[in-house]
Specification:
Blueprint (H helix, E strand, L loop, with lengths): L4 H10 L7 H16 L6 E3 L1 H8 L4 H13 L3 E4 L8 E5 L5
Antiparallel strand pairs: 1-3, 2-3
Organism: Flavobacterium johnsoniae (strain ATCC 17061 / DSM 2064 / JCM 8514 / BCRC 14874 / CCUG 350202 / NBRC 14942 / NCIMB 11054 / UW101)
Protein name: Transcriptional regulator
Length: 97
Amino acid sequence: MENLKPLSDFFAAIEKDFRISTTHIAIYAALLQLRIERGFINPIDVFSRDIISKVKISSTYTYIKCIQDLNDYGYINYVRSFKKTQASKIYFTDFEE
């Protein structure tokens, strides 16, 4: 159950945030799943192609827009890599602070 706390905290944080869509939620959940698989490290290194395939979206533009929104709204800190061979970094926000 401890693994679900970050997702529960995220849902509590977005409850009244009208800017968040189902695509934002799917991307955040996929990022959180990667974090769990990697032992809850913070940050995680992510390639957009890995998340796009997990979330079942077909547009890189949609991914970048939504991940940038999550960054701008304070749910994550996204450090984009512009190199195809270098992953971007995703820092997760601690909602308890």
